[in-house]
Amino acid sequence: MKKSDFHFDLPPELIAQAPLPERTASRLLWVPPVGADFEDRRFAELEALLAPGDLLVFNDTRVIPARVFGSKETGGRVEIMIERLLPANEARAQIGASKSPKPGSTIQLDAGGSAEVLSRDEGFYHLRFDVPGALESWLQHSGKLPLPPYITREADSADALRYQTVFAKTPGAVAAPTAGLHFDDALLDRLRAKGVQTDYVTLHVGAGTFMPMRVENVQDHTMHREWLNVGAELVQRIRRTREAGGRVIAVGTTVVRALESAMRDGELQPFAGETQIFIFPGYRIRSVDALITNFHLPESTLLMLVSAFAGRDRILEAYAHAVAQRYRFFSYGDAMMLWPQSDAAEDDA
Questions:
Q1: Domains detected in the chain
Q2: Which of 68, 88, 179, 325 is the right S-S partner for 252, CB 3.0 to 4.6 Å?
Q3: Is Iron-sulfur among this UniProt entry's keywords (predicted)?
Q4: 117-127 pLDDT tens trace
Q5: From the DSSP assignment, how many helices (H) and strands (E) are in the chain?
Q6: Separation of alpha carbons 88 and 101, rounded Å
Q7: How do residues 63-108 score in pLDDT, each as one tens digit?
Q8: 18 closest CA partner among 330, 321, 320
Q9: What is the pTM of this model?
């Protein structure tokens, strides 16, 4: 299987550069299994597409202001993108500089304080920050929000609200779980009033989610690491939902990654820790019955994940439809609701 098998042509003007005025104003492409037609809907119609007893599973991670700027001892400028917060004011990070800083060197931070380079591994740096107080708190007033690289503008005050889900709770992500951005409190209230259940995983989305695949053979790719937590109460709720005939619907690929990482011997189990799970066609997703997701980059691992769920040909057909109908793509773009490919289609994949 080749990376190029997941290519599609996307006009640059379809890449959403800013959110719509209302979260639920996005469009929603309904993608049933092969044999049924696509439907162009509005995200605000989601209530009509769900039934009492269904369970929506969200990712409650919270995006931290993870971009920090400074200067090397030589005076060269540095941009630090924190990948993960670690104990003792340490962090795993990417560093952008004209020349890579060496272990043992110190970066003076524009907002005050410094960061010592402890080591480098797989393109990431291990840093120790000397800043007032806890690093997480310091970042809240000194860091900058890390918008995705395909958004060609600086983050503004509106992004601090809109590049964050309304249910964001646990700080640690450097990118938003974007399928959740379409939900506002009013929609969530209507869904709960209808009898639709909601629950949460935590998966801290890392900067590695934007790194392009650098190998042509898909099987040769090594995924980045992300930290997650699937709690015991959620596991029990998922079991009860399915026993009662309800559907488990993942809101975002990060939820799928979390739940599939928590599968043990075909059963969902509580799990907290790191995952490097790589889901691509040939892998059968068993933890969810449907998936709400945004549109993903060509040749990306996330496009491969949704292809594993709904079938590569079906996904590429849906993306071609979305391009023709001028859907908005990527983080601030529109959404799709996917149903799994049939067993017959899966056998042919």
A1: 3-63+159-348 (3.40.1780.10), 67-142 (2.40.10.240)
A2: 179
A3: no
A4: 999 987 899 99
A5: 9, 19
A6: 21
A7: 999 999 999 999 999 999 999 899 999 999 999 999 989 999 999 9
A8: 330
A9: 0.93
